[in-house]
Structure formats: structure tokens, C-alpha cells
Amino acid sequence: MLGPPWFTTKLQTNLKWWLLRLSRRSSISEIPQFTRYNIVRQMRPELLLWYSILAPSLFAAAAAGLPFTRGQKKTDDEEAVVEHDGGVITFAKHKSRRNTVLENFFASGDDDEAASTALLHEIRNLAANRSDFLVSTRRTLHRRPELMYRESETSALVRKILTELDIPFSTGWALNANPDIVPGSGGYGIVADIGTGGEPCVLLRADMDALPITERTEGIEEFKSQNDGRMHACGHDGHTTMLLGAASILKSMEDSIKGTVRIMFQPAEEGGAGAKRMREEGVLGKDPKPQNAFGLHVWPKLPSGTIAGRPGPLLAAAERFEILVAGVGGHAAMPEQSVDPIVTASAIVMNLQTIVSRTISPLESGVCSITMLEGGEAFNVIPASVTMRGTVRALSTETLLSLRDRVRHIAENTAATFGCNITITYSPDYYPPTVNDPTLYRNFAQDVGALVASKEFFLSDVEPTMGAEDFSFVAESIPSTFFLLGQGSGTDPPTNYGLHHPRFALDESVMPRGVELHVNLALRALHRLRNEKALD
User: Fold this and answer.
1) Is 270 helix (H, G, I), strand (E, B) or coil?
2) Do 126 and 249 form a contact (C-beta atoms < 8 A)?
3) Per-residue pLDDT tens for 284-320?
4) Could you write out the DSSP letters of every residue in 302-314?
5) pLDDT in tens, 216-250
6) CA 261 to CA 61: how far, in whole Å?
7) 48 contacts: CB under 8 Å, gap ≥ 6
């Protein structure tokens, strides 16, 4: 140590002034670490000379009790520097992780509006202060999209940021159980606990994988996908970033949290059932066991900043299938010598359209879509086989399984009528519907959503959609709520293209709101669970 604390502080203040002057930057956070190091190394002789001249007189002044001006000393805060492709982002990292606003909130009753409002504003300010970090991190992830079970770089960046934030974590989650069907080893999931390590416990989850889509979004050349044929076209880069932002806030107030927040970074959402793999591996069973879980998804069809949800099923159950129709090939001029799989496949497509209209109640919802037909290579050859792919969707598992059985029955009987054989293959893991626990939603989650969004930007009973989400595997196990976060109002580039569209773009301005939603749900859920336990 160069001297007493007040002298070290003054030395640091002058050093920062010289760093800014020599680097021609306006903020210390704008100077990369290696630049700071080089400047300090060049100044070392001058600093030592300055210290040797001034130190004796300063020590004498202190001993005599003479007044002097001290720089403002920050005993609790230091800078956390996160470096990645997007540059260097700096934000506060706290040695003391107490937050008096949060402590007052946990000490308050359920009807203490002042404490609730103070916490809302505290979290909002903390989220707003992380805007640069959110944008830079999300753009880094967007440049390097990775498909399910192959999210190595994505996982590495998340681990790097958690390490910088001093958040312990475990990795190796979500191993690929079906490598013969889906490429990749998996194991890129990450789980971290923030708080006391004891009960109560709630879980926040984000997905990380991208899609096999070639990006055509305009106006984002600075951070467009660098991986050919891969794109974050479903907003998972934003989901991961928002959960990292939430984790940084929760860590900054960890010593005041009454309970544990489990952070779940999940790979392989896009058809790989990564949440199911993590559930099987024990993410919901390890102590302390989560009692509630929360997640969100950006939604281009809602205005930016809107938060929407509903009790009961919000997203559909889904199953995908492949049908191989085998016939007998031959010359197109002599069809009588062939068993035409194209005619058979066409008949199967038409007959499958009767499933929803004739086998389920008009009061229920269902979808059966054939989305791919592949067969034949020449205009004058009847092929020997045709491959069909499609999906069935429903708002209940029971209806989904009924639709799946009807697909097999209709396909087999239609093929037999035309003299063909079929082989039908389903996915290893169908997705159950994403169901918001009605009690949790009505008595708690919808109030938090309305608080964060303000009532005019909150939709409490949005229509369900036939899209599917593997957060459903979490919600199937513990009471959960999944929200939709509107992002469709951006203009440069337009952010109202649908999910999985090659021109999909994220409205980055909504990310602080997503962070707010995560943090408020976690902390307020812990408060609620503690109060419920106290009443028991």
C-alpha cells in the first residue's frame, strides 16, 4: 500500500485524470484494460517521484490535524469489466451486496405500497443503468448464433460474464439424449444460485439456441450473423441477455435477498427439449427445490414494452412427424405398372385435413399441418417413395395425443387404399402445452406484470397461440408463469416480423423491461412465499 487510505484515494483520483487526458476519452469505462495498463506503465517513474515529494508533507499535515481535501472514497463499489466482441462494458460490481430498499421490502407487509413502489423504482434504475451492457452482450450473441446442442460459444460467454460477476455456477447441463437424431453432444446448460442458498427458492429461465435460417435482416451489418445459415430468429439472444442483466442486479443485492433465486440458462429449445433434459438431470430437484418458476418470450405482434399473459394454457402442445410413403416406381407414361406414392401422399394430405374438423370438438383447438413433401427427380419418372413432414398442435396433452393417433390411422389406411406402405416416425419428445398455473397467475404474477408494464401496457388475458415452448416441461412440474414481452414497435430495423422469419429483428429498447420483469418476479415471489410460510 502506498500510504494511508485517504492518500491512496487521492492518488487514484489523479491517476484517473491522467488516464482520461492521455487517452482522450470521456469516461474510464471507455478505455480498454490493456490501454490503461500501458499508460500506467509509462507513467510509473513520474508517479513514484510525485509520491516521494508529496508524501512526507501530506503525512505531516495529517499528523498535525491540518485540513485537506479528500477524494470521495468508494469503499463498497468497484468496476466489473466484461470484454467480448462488442467491446468493453463496465458496470458497478459491489463488494457489499446489501440493498436497504430490498431489506425494507422484505420487512414490509403484503399491503405496504410504499415499500413495493420503492423496490419497483430501485430495480428500474438498476436495469436502466445496464442498457449498454445489454445491447453489447446481445449483439455479441447475435453475431455467433449456434444450433441446439452445439451452443459452445454462447455457453462460454455466459460463463465468462457470470465469473466476472462473482456468481458461482454449474455447467454440463442438457446433454443430448438423442445424438442419432439431433447432432451435437450438448452439455452447454448453466445453472446458478443467487441468495442465501436456502428456502424459499424460485427459478428464472432463458433459452440460448438459434435456428437454421439465413439472416436477411437489413440495417444491422454491424452485428449480423457471422455463421452462415444460422440466425437468432426467435429472440433467444435477447432472452439470454435479459437473464444475465437480471442476474447482475440480483447479485448486487444478494446479501439482502431472503431466499434463493435459481438462474437457468437452457440450450436446445428449438425442438431439442433442452428443458426436459435439464429437468431429468435434476435442475428442479436439487436443494433448495424451486417452488415457482418464471420465463418470458419476446413477441413481435405486440407493441414494444407490452407484457401479456393469461391463466391456463398460453402456448400449445406440439408434436412433429415424418411419413415415408413407399410405392413402386416406374415410367410416367406407364402408370399402370407403378404404385404411385405421389398420388398416395396427396391423398394423405387431403385426408389429414379432416382430423381437426371431424375428430375433435369445435370448442377445442387443434392444428394438423403438412409442411414438406419430397419425392421424384425427373418429370417422366414416377418415384418409388415420397417423404412427408408435418406437425400437430393442441392446447392440451390429451388432444395432442389423440391427434397423433389419428395421423397414424389415416395415413396407414389411405396408403393401403392405394397399395402403398408407410413408415411414420415421431419426435423423441413431444412438447406439452405451456400452462400458466391459474392460482399463481391470478393471485400474484399478473399483478407483478401490471406493476412493471403499468396497467395500460399489460394484457392479462391474451389469446393463446399454437406456438410451442419447452418451458412447458418446467411448468408441468412446478407452478409457473410465462409472459410475452411485446417488441413490435421498432422501426430501424422493423421489429414486427414474425418469429422464425429471416428478417426478424429484436427491439433492443425492451430489454431493460425484461430485466425488470425477471427481477421483480423473483424477489416478490420470494417475499410472497416467506409470508405464506409464516402464516402456516
Assistant:
1) coil
2) yes
3) 999 999 999 999 999 999 999 999 999 999 999 999 9
4) S-TT-EE--SEEE
5) 999 999 999 999 999 999 999 999 999 999 999 99
6) 50
7) none
